[in-house]
Amino acid sequence: MESWRFVADVHLARLAKYLRLFGFDTLYFSSIGDEELIHIATTQGRTILTKDRDLARQTPQAYLVQPKGLEAQLERLFADLQLRIQRPFSRCMVDNTLLEPIAKEAILERIPPKVREWCETFWYCPGCQRIYWRGSHWERMQLMVERFGGGTP
Ligand SMILES: [Zn+2]
């Protein structure tokens, strides 16, 4: 199965975040020019996600994202590229780094007391040091994953 890698343009921060949630390797820069986007796409084998028709016309490596809401954009993208969620919750939503499991004892001071009481499983981002766990936020994310066919990890 083809494994898609993306680079999203500056207007698609939320889309990039959700693609990372679904496990897709997705770069995003809050400031980047068209030339650099095309350079990254070409050298790293990534598909550019953009709402900019001019950019989409410049390179066959661009996918023109529909100017609708996030879920509609994702639906179209999944249908057009036949995407399949394979490793949901495997990447940091903030910086795309692959998460690593981490022992609760190692991060006790960094998690809220309430979470300490009930949660035993944690992940850690080597990129930005964020700690992830399956809290209330996670449940909402899980619904999105299921909605796009990802099932339960
Ligand atoms: Zn991170």
Report on this model:
It is a single chain. The strands form 2 sheets. Strands 2-1-3-4 form a 4-stranded parallel β-sheet, sandwiched between helices. The protein has a 3-stranded antiparallel β-sheet with strand order 5-6-7. With 153 residues, the chain is of the alpha/beta class. It folds into 2 domains: 5-81; 100-147, no CATH class. The protein has helices spanning 13-21, 34-44, 53-58, 70-81, 104-107, 113-118, 136-147; strands at residues 5-8, 25-28, 47-50, 62-64, 100-102, 122-124, 131-132. It is built from 7 helices and 7 strands. The mean pLDDT is 93. It is elongated and about 55 Å long. The structure holds zinc ion. Zinc ion binds next to loops.
What would a concise description of this structure say?
With 153 residues, this protein is of the alpha/beta class. It is built from 7 helices and 7 strands, in the order βαβαβαβαβααββα. It has helices at 13-21, 34-44, 53-58, 70-81, 104-107, 113-118, 136-147, and strands at residues 5-8, 25-28, 47-50, 62-64, 100-102, 122-124, 131-132.
Elements, N to C (H/E) = EHEHEHEHEHHEEH
**Gyration radius over CA:** 17 Å
Give the structural class: alpha/beta
**Percent in strands:** 15-25%
Shape: elongated
- Overall pLDDT, averaged? 93
Number of strands: 7
Helix content range: 25-40%
Q: What order do the strands of the largest sheet run in, or round the barrel if closed?
A: 2-1-3-4
Can you tell me the number of structural domains?
Answer: 2
- Tally of contiguous helical segments: 7
Tell me which ligands are bound. Answer: zinc ion
Quote the distance from N terminus to C terminus: 19 Å
Poorly predicted ranges = none
Largest sheet: 4 strands, parallel
